[in-house]
Amino acid sequence: MKHFCLITLLALLSNWVIAQNPFITHMYTADPSARVFNDTLFVYPSHDQDTATKFTMYDWHVFSTTDMKNWKDHGVAFSLDDVSWADKQAWAPDCIYRNGKYYFYYPVEHSMIGVAVSNNPYGYFKDPLDSALIHTNSAGVICNRDFIDPAVFIDDDGQAYLYMGQLVVNAIKLNEDMISYDGKVHIIKGTDDFFEAIWMHKYNGKYYLSYAAESGEIKYCMSNNPLGPFEYKGVILPKMNSGTNHHSIVEYKGQWYMFYHNSDLYYKNHPEVEEKFGWGHKGSPHPFRRSICFDKLYYNEDGTIQQVIPTK
Ligand code: FUB
To answer: Per UniProt, which keywords does this protein have (predicted)?
Structure first.
């Protein structure tokens, strides 16, 4: 009995991780989408394998906190094992709540977006369609590149949008059921140097589209309309030491935060690998083991965003 209690206690403790940057250190995580559901902040990242030398990812964990210090790993929320129509590249996901259910949008095989549904924010999610929600061939749009990095947004009037893409920002209007759309793909204009990792949020009535630029920085633009056109505003996060840059922006308990990833943990765990170019430098190496971080984000009085300073 004593042993059982000690083992249970240790197992519970090992599920909780004390905050720091990176704030998840027992596994590699990337591409964090942060969401607030019922006063709890949830993070939906992708999961870099411990030995990865490519973006070979297979499943997604969910993490949560109520104090920005103690994080709970809820374990695998969804996995490619439960996707009948794809078997590789479980990349950057996102999740949203609507009408009593949680909708988990996930990209696979660098070209398709799926949706999985659960009654709670940490899964386990189930694929109701048994096929992609959208893929580059079904979209009927020529040359809008790959559908990756889905970012979901529900406007105040109840219309839900799903943004996705690499090199081109694509958006669809989701139907009320959140697992189908009206058949049209909108191409969003006004970004500068757009590469990938779209995030959409609204602040004081304005729409903010932020993204990873080809320069490696996170940049943003603003509009009065969720489908644009947008006006480019500037850089809000420097290039990281992780090859890729990917972020999300969320308000929690009155404070705005930016979540992002870097490869500090990988370099710490692998001192034999030289961090050749360091923080924010052009041409940094491209480790496929990344770790999620967060820092506070502030707006200026005119609604523009101040550049986030990454803390260690
Ligand atoms: O994690 C795989 C890919 O790397 C994501 O889809 C991109 O945004 C980049 O972070």
So the answer is: Carbohydrate metabolism, Glycosidase, Hydrolase, Polysaccharide degradation, Signal, Xylan degradation
- Cis peptide upstream of residue 299 (ω within 30 degrees of 0): no
Cα 92 to ligand 1 centroid, rounded to whole Å: 6
For ligand 1, the distance from its centroid to the CA atom of residue 148, given in whole angstroms, is 8
Catalytic residues: 31, 196
Interatomic CA distance for residues 78 and 65, integer angstroms: 19
Q: What is the ipTM of this complex?
A: 0.99
Measured by CA distance, the residue closest to atom 1 of ligand 1 is 91
**What values do phi and psi take at 74, rounded to 5?**
-85, 0
Q: Which of 244, 245, 288 to mutate to test the pocket of ligand 1 (most atoms within 8 A of CB)?
A: 244
| CB neighbours of residue 84 within 10 Å | 10
Digit-coded pLDDT (tens) for 128-146:
999 999 988 776 665 566 8
Pocket of ligand 1 (CB under 6 A): 30-31, 46, 55, 91-92, 148-149, 196-197, 244, 246
Give the burial class of 235: count Cβ atoms within 10 A of its Cβ; 0-12 exposed, 13-18 middle, 19 or more buried.
middle
SS3 for 235-270 is EEECCCCCCCCCEEEEEECCEEEEEEEECHHHHHHC
User: What sign results for the dihedral spanned by CA atoms 61, 125, 74, 21?
Assistant: positive
